[in-house]
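Subject: Re: docking follow-up (NAP)

Dear J.,

Thanks for your patience while I sorted out the input files. As discussed at Tuesday's group meeting, I've set up the holo structure prediction with NAP included as the bound ligand rather than trying to dock it afterwards. The sequence and the ligand SMILES I used are pasted below, so you can double-check that they match what you have on your end before we go further.
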Amino acid sequence: MLDLSDSNTLLAGVSMGLGYAVASDLSRKGSKVMITARNSEKLQRIASATGVKYYACDLTRESELLLDHFQREAGDLNNLVIMIGGFFHDSIQDLTALDIMVDSHVKTTLRFLEKAVKRMKDGSNVVLVSSTQTLSTTGKASLSYSISKYALNKAVEVTASHLLSQQIRVNAVAPSVMMGDFESGRDYRKLRKLGSLETPPEDVANVIAWLLSPDSEWVNGVVIPVDGGHRLK
Ligand SMILES: NC(=O)c1ccc[n+]([C@@H]2O[C@H](COP(=O)([O-])OP(=O)(O)OC[C@H]3O[C@@H](n4cnc5c(N)ncnc54)[C@H](OP(=O)(O)O)[C@@H]3O)[C@@H](O)[C@H]2O)c1
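The structure tokens for the complex came back this morning:
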């Protein structure tokens, strides 16, 4: 098992799906973890199940408060995972979700990253969460969601390039459709086979942990699909 015991990790945009899975996985691997999102009841449930710390806030308004709180409670920030999400289906015939998707996946994520990297030191890591909808050529993709995640893919490359001087790596994972809420202790490997549409959040959490670890220290500025090869069908 990876040993992340030298790290302080902030997970932003934590859900009962991916966020919970990552919190559980990283704390099992020894990282000191703090989780954040707006809904404090959800955070409390995850914190009591995993032993991680939590701080409820809206990242559009309270990111400096969060970073101050993290510094006081956990110390220097070395690992940052931003999973801020939300999904709406729309299309060029009915472009209802454009503002909300760009705001959430691009603006809130990058504004928060802008503030966080000012506090991160040499050797720190950032992981963002994209989607295999950026790789799909089908017309089924949501227009606003997929272009927002496409922008995030480019942001991974450009921010990784800008942060070379600070020795901070920036990477992303791109899951396919995730399998709902995380359930601690289940045998998630039995729930999928190569080519399946749905991805257990545990599989995505494993790749995120690797990207945060020294085992991946020569991987920088990339977006890794985590879909068991479903995109190849
Ligand atoms: N689910 C999938 O099938 C899938 C597939 C591919 C990629 N992804 C991506 O994977 C990531 C996680 O997805 P998910 O389905 O687990 O969760 P999600 O519900 O899409 O988003 C994660 C969390 O972000 C939080 N959030 C949104 N705006 C926020 C804000 N202003 N301040 C603080 N927190 C905010 C929400 O929690 P609060 O409401 O508590 O604030 C939400 O639960 C997302 O980036 C998503 O786009 C998901």
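A couple of observations from a first look. The longest strand covers residues 169-175. Residues 98-117 form the longest helix (20 residues).

Let me know if you'd like me to rerun anything.

Best regards,
T.
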